Amino acid sequence: DAGITQSPRHKVTETGTPVTLRCHQTENHRYMYWYRQDPGHGLRLIHYSYGVKDTDKGEVSDGYSVSRSKTEDFLLTLESATSSQTSVYFCAISSTGTAGNTIYFGEGSWLTVV
Amino acid sequence: AQKVTQAQTEISVVEKEDVTLDCVYETRDTTYYLFWYKQPPSGELVFLIRRNSFDEQNEISGRYSWNFQKSTSSFNFTITASQVVDSAVYFCALSVLNTGGFKTIFGAGTRLFVKA
C-alpha cells in the first residue's frame, strides 16, 4: 500500500463544467503524477510534480492544469470538461532512493463527461 | 524523446502454456529504468519489476522471468506455465531523469487471456 487516495473515485459531469480530481499521499513522496488510461493508448502522462509548486507537462497536458501547494496533495483540474476527457485517471507517486525510481498507483478515478 | 512499444495488443493462450510479452523501448539517455506492471480485471495497477540500464542480468521470480537486452532495446516478460489468474493487461514502462525529475512513460499494454 503506497498510501495514495484519489477522490472522487467516480464522477459524471456535463460538458463545459470544471472538474477537479484530488490525489492525497501520506508518505511524503517528492514525485507525484497524473495519468489517464484509455483503450488502445495505455497509460499516458498528463502532468507530474517534483516538489511543492514544481510541476511539468506530460504527453497529453492540453486541457488540464495541476497544482501542488502541499507535499501530500496533487490536484488535477479540467477547466472546461469535454467528452474526450472521459477516461480513467490514475494518480501515482514515485518512490526514489538508492533502489531507483518506482511508480506506485492509486486506485483510479472514473470520469464521465456527458 | 522516449517511447515504449508493446506490439502485441492481445494474446490468448491455454493454461500451462508459456507466453512471452514483448517490449521495445527508445531513449537516448544512458541511465534509465524499465518496469513491468500488471492490471488485473479489478483495475488496480500492480508493480512487478524494475531494472536499471546498467544491469542486464535477467531475472526470474517464480513463474515470471524477464529478459533485458540493451543491444535490441528490449525488455521482454515471460510467464511459464500460465494460469487463469495471469489474465490481465500488462504494461511495460520506461523512466528517465529529466530536469524536473523522473518522467515515466508506458506502452499501450498487452491484454493476456489465459483459458482453462
SSE map:
The complex is a heterodimer of chains A (114) and B (116).
Chain A: E1 4-7, E2 10-13, E3 19-25, E4 31-38, E5 42-51, E6 54-57, E7 64-70, E8 73-78, E9 87-95, E10 102-105, E11 109-113
Parallel strand pairs in A: 2-11
Antiparallel strand pairs in A: 1-3, 3-8, 4-5, 4-9, 5-6, 7-8, 9-10, 9-11
Chain B: E1 3-5, E2 10-14, E3 19-21, E4 24-26, E5 32-39, E6 46-52, E7 59-61, E8 64-69, E9 74-79, E10 88-98, E11 101-106, E12 110-115
Q: Mean of residue pLDDT of chain A?
A: 92
* First-last Cα distance of chain A: 33 Å
- The count of strands of chain B amounts to 12
- Using only C-alpha atoms, the radius of gyration of chain B works out to 14 Å
Q: Distance between termini of chain B?
A: 41 Å
How would you sum up this structure in a few lines?
Chain A has strands at 4-7, 10-13, 19-25, 31-38, 42-51, 54-57, 64-70, 73-78, 87-95, 102-105, 109-113.
Structural account:
The complex is a heterodimer of chains A (114) and B (116). Chain A is an all-beta fold and 114 residues long. Chain A contains no helices and eleven strands. The radius of gyration of chain A is 13 Å and the shape is globular. The relative contact order of chain A is 0.33. Chain B has 116 residues and is mainly β. In chain B, the strands form three sheets. In chain B, strands 2, 5, 6, 10, 11 and 12 form a six-stranded mixed β-sheet that branches. In chain B, strands 3-9-8-7 form a four-stranded antiparallel β-sheet, with no helix packed on it. The chains are: A mainly beta (114), B mainly beta (116). The A-B interface holds A 30-31, 33, 35, 40-45, 48, 50-51, 54-56, 58-59, 88, 90, 94, 96, 100-105, 107-108 and B 6, 9, 33, 35, 43-45, 47, 50, 52, 91, 93, 95, 97-98, 100-109.
Keywords:
heterodimer, A: 114 residues, mainly beta, 7-stranded mixed sheet, 4-stranded antiparallel sheet, 11 strands, globular, B: 116 residues
